[in-house]
Amino acid sequence: MGRQTCHLSIRREAAAHSLSRHYRYGYLVAVANIQTSHGMADGKPGMSLDDVRAVYSGFERKSVSDEIPSRMLAMLRSSMREYVEDDADYSVLETWLKKGAPKAGLDPADAKKTPARVIILNCLRCHARDGGEDIGKRSPFGPDDMTVDYEMMRPLLPADMKPGMVSMRIGPQYSMPRLILVSHIHMLSIPMFTLVVGLLFSMTRWPAKWLNWLTPLPMIALVFDFGGWWLARLGDVFVLFIVGAGGVFGVVFAVQIVAILVDLWRPSRRIMDF
Questions:
Q1: Confidence (pLDDT) at 61
Q2: Residue 31 CA, distance from chain mean position
Q3: Neighbours of 170 (CB within 10 A)
Q4: Residues 190, 196, 197, 201, Cα dihedral to 10°
Q5: Where are any strands of DSSP class E within 141-254?
Q6: Is residue 172's pLDDT more than 60?
Q7: pLDDT given at position 148
Q8: How far apart, in whole angstroms, are the C-alpha atoms of residue 75 and residue 208?
């Protein structure tokens, strides 16, 4: 009977170890995904508070005095930057937009690489009106994926603006349908694996005071985090909910995983007695 109990304990610990290892690697991938998905949301490398503002609430995009700001220029430097992979293409399009996006400069005959060509190669696969994408219907750059139409882009190209405007309001980058989709995916998945890790953590041999405080914290943080996604559209102050609650969740969840792994490697009293 004692041998069977010992073997059962070993199998349980092996299963828990395998599960916690899965969540450990998943946690690291999730952190990397946040960096790659939102690290350029404000047009600057690296995560910052402005990246979170740009995604969930919108933010003031500052411009230098020698360029004419526009929504398309701001978006090119932030959420759309990843879709223009070639640096030369990016430079051509950015330079044209900084000058106010003059119609004559869209497709000059004497240029090898023109803004129109860059838009065809990098933008029209999503921004074509008849391409089937929602963004193409809301912000079309042309009727199809081979034709650039300046008049369709005009709402994003305020060419009548003059240099001297130092900022403009941009965002939020998550449209309402996109926010609903992201919320649906995350609210169904994250609480489930948080619950699993929380249950494993609650069954460890760490002091009861630690377990009582740390076990429910990730779930509570998720409520504030998810709520902040929606409330941030009402005011920038709720962006702090996202950052604060997300930070609490990340730290405590990581502590739980490490605590589970350490507890698994601690000698079992039953095994020692055996």
A1: 64
A2: 10
A3: 23
A4: 150
A5: 167-170
A6: yes
A7: 92
A8: 50
Structure token pair of residue 116: 């129109």
* Closest to 80 measured CA to CA, from 3, 171, 16: 171
Give 17-57 pLDDT, tens digit per residue: 555 555 566 667 777 777 777 766 666 667 778 788 878 88
Which of 227, 210, 228, 219 has its CA nearest to residue 248? 219
Q: How far is CA 124 from CA 41, 147, 234, 270, in A?
A: 21, 8, 32, 65
pLDDT of 239 higher than 60: yes
Amino acid letter, residue 208:
A
- Residues 246 and 238: their CA atoms lie apart, in Å, by 12
Q: Which of 139, 176, 171 is nearest to 155 (CA)?
A: 139
Q: Which of 106, 86, 109, 85 minimizes the C-alpha distance to 95? A: 106
Give the Cα separation of 23 and 193 in Å (integer). Answer: 8
Q: What's the one-letter identity of residue 102?
A: P
Amino acid letter, residue 178: R
Give the model's pLDDT for residue 130: 87
Question: Which of 85-94, 145-154, 168-177, 218-227: highest mean pLDDT?
Answer: 218-227
CA 258 to chain centroid, in Å, comes to 25
Q: Strands, E, within the chain: which ranges?
A: 59-62, 167-170
Contact by Cβ (8 Å): 217, 252: yes
Q: Which two tokens stand for residue 134?
A: 């929602």
pTM of the model: 0.64
3-state secondary structure 10-46: HHHHHHHHHHHHHHHHHHHHHHHHHHHHHCCCCCCCC
CB-facing half-sphere around the CA of 262: CA atoms within 13 A: 9
